[in-house]
Structure formats: structure tokens, C-alpha cells
Write a structure and sequence with these properties.
The chain is an alpha+beta fold and about 300 residues long. It contains 7 helices and 14 strands. The protein has 3 domains: about 1-50, Roll (Structural Genomics Hypothetical 15.5 Kd Protein In mrcA-pckA Intergenic Region, Chain A); about 55-145, Pseudouridine synthase (2-Layer Sandwich), CATH 3.30.2350; about 150-309, Pseudouridine synthase (2-Layer Sandwich). Helix content is about 20%, strand content about 25%. Strands 4, 5, 6, 7, 8, 11, 12, 13 and 14 form a 9-stranded mixed beta sheet that branches. Helix 6 (about 250-260) packs antiparallel against helix 7. It is elongated, with a radius of gyration of 22 Å. The model is unreliable at about 50-55 and about 305-309 (pLDDT under 50).
Length: about 300
Amino acid sequence: MLADVLSGMMTRSSLSRLIREGLITSDAKRIKPSTVLKPGQEVTIEFNAIVEQPSAPVNTVPHPVILFEDDHVIVLDKPAGLVVHPGAGTREPTLMDILVACRPGMIGVGEHDRWGIVHRLDKDTSGVMIVAKTILAHEDLSAQFKVHSVGRVYMALVRGAPKSEAGVIDKELGRSRSDRKRMSTVTRKGRLAVTSWRVKDRFGPVSLLEIRPETGRTHQIRVHLASVGLPILGDRVYGTRAKKKLHSDRLSNKLASILKRQALHAAFLSFKHPDTGENLDFYSDLPSDMLEAIRICRKISWNTDNQRY
């Protein structure tokens, strides 16, 4: 079987998709799932045809910084503003486009249009993430994420002053009843989601939190924090409807001019190397926009009632 010949290079689902799209041929004829191939028969797979060209050159979007790379994985620092993989309504070049453009061997690793992707960060979330270069690495890393053995730590600037120094948010997540594009803790079909947090610093009505998601649901951190009255600064989807506002409109406007996105950063990632089994840790420093927002907040003195001195 073709799947057996390409074992370790492509998944059966990827092969099935290519066959359906007519991109696998033999003797200039498209093969079918039922086609029986003879020993020695040549087969052509048109990999180049399945890589859709982005509507703009890849040099028009912010590029990631490679923290580590070998024959199996790439660990990178993703900038804010970069989409991880193509999706509905996505026309700008993505992280996947950038990587595949110079690493065509990644084509066929994982799902179509998600070559190498084993997890994702939102477009406007920055920080460290990992990409697989081989199908075996993809399968191993996907399994690690599935059992939640991958260590992840995020940093976030939030609106609000927590009453305690740490906490755990244990609320199921699912599609919002009123808006299918949004996730919510009020949903008909929720899935287990747990997020732990602790305060790293306080700036009156703004706090810097260290966050450890114990599960990996879509928009989990953003929705969970907003649900307990601590929306992430700059979050246009889950932060704008919060009732609490910054005490100083001047400070609010200043931070809004600095943060053009949600102030959420993936600061730490640890995993077991899919080939060597070695435990690897990677860090990403806070980006310049979050550092500048912290600097502005630190210039202001606040008393315990969140009133400016």
C-alpha cells in the first residue's frame, strides 16, 4: 500500500486528501483510493500544487526568530501579528507559509494547510512555540499536547486588581450561544478547561499575571481571565465588554496607543524531544510593547484603593 511505503513521511489522512484532489498520479493518470499499484510502478505526488500561494509576499509580514532547529523540530519566537496557519478569511502569509517556503520537506507533515503545526498561538499572541519537521515528530508532539505533558507559561497584562495572589479558574469552554465566532464559559456543549494564575506585579488598576494553562482550549486564557473580571489589555474580542475600566482615562488611552493587540505572551515552553527523549526548555522575553506598557504603569504610584497618589 502507498501508505506503508510513505510511512513516517505522510499520514493516511494526508494521502487520502491528495488522492481526492487528484494530486497523486501514475502513468499520467489520477489514482483512486481503490487503485491497486503493481511492484515497481512509478507514482507522482504533486506537492507543489498543494501549497497555496499567499496573496502577498512572505516578506510583508513579521517573521519569527528561530530559537532552536534540528532535523526533527523547530522552536521559534512568534511575533504578534503573524497568523500560524491558513484558515477561513486568512489571506496574508502565515507562519506555515514562511517555514514551508524554505523547508519544502515539511510538506505532507500533518494536515493539509497545517504542515508541521502541532499547536498554535492566536495571531496577536506572541511567544515561543514548536513546529514539527517530520511525521514522526508531529505524531509524538501531538501526543504530548494531547496528554498535557508539555509545560507552558504565559505572561499577561490584565485590567483589574486581583483580591488574592493566585488562583485557579475551572470553567468549561465552548462556542458562545450568541456568537459562534466567540468562545464562552456559558455554552451548551462545554469542554473541561483549567487555568492557574498568580500575580507577578501590581500597578493599581493593571496587573501582570503569570498563567499556566492545564488544558489547551481555543482562546482559553483570554476567556477565562475575562470571566473572572480580569480581561487582558488590548483584547478587542473578550476585553472590550468588561464593565471594569481603568481608573485613569489618560492611562487607558496611553496603554491603548502602545498595545495594538492583546497583551498576552507565551514566555516558556518545555517538551520531550521526539527523537532523543531529552527534556528541553525554551524561554521568550517579554516583547517591547508589553515592556513599554509596564514602564508606563510603573511611572505612576498607586495606593491600595487603586487611587493615584
